[in-house]
Amino acid sequence: MFRLRSMPQERLISWQEHTLTVYAEDLTSSSLTGEQIAQHVAESARELFPDGGLREGHSVLEVVIEGEAGGYLWVGPSDSTDDFYVFDVEIDGQFRGRGFGRAAMRAAEEIARERGYHGVALTVADANMVARGLYESEGYETVGARQGRRFMRRAL
Length: 156
What we know:
Aminopeptidase, seven-stranded mixed sheet, 4 helices, 7 strands, 37% helix, 32% strand, GNAT_dom, YpeA/RimI_acetyltransf, GNAT family N-acetyltransferase, transferase
C-alpha cells in the first residue's frame, strides 16, 4: 500500500539536513572542488530553504508504505523553466525495487497536472544508473548535461 502525506513539520529540519548532505555527496562525482561543493550547497540551502522553511509552492511529501514513512518526494516550481520540478525523490532501502519510486514519480506528475503544469523536469547524477533507468522508462528525456549531471524532462 502506497500513499503520500505532508511531511510533519517536526521532521522537516532533519530532512533538510539529510537532503543537503546527499546533494553534497552527489556533487563529489562532478569536477567541483570540495570548497566549490561547500559553496554550492550553502547557496542552494539559502535559496531553497529561506528562513529554514520551504519556498513558496514547494511540497515535501512522505511516501507512506505499509503504514510507515518509507521515503519522500520533494516537488515545486522550477526556477529555470516553466516545468514542475522533482527536486528529490528517495525510497528507503528496504522498500526499493518494489515500484514505489515509480509510484512517487507518477504522483509528482499528477500534482503537476493539478497545478496546471505541462511538463515535469528533474536533475540526476550521471552515475545514478538506477534512477536514470526509472526516469527513462517513464518517458523522461535528457535535455542537457553539465558537471556529471543530466537534466531530464517529460511533457505531460
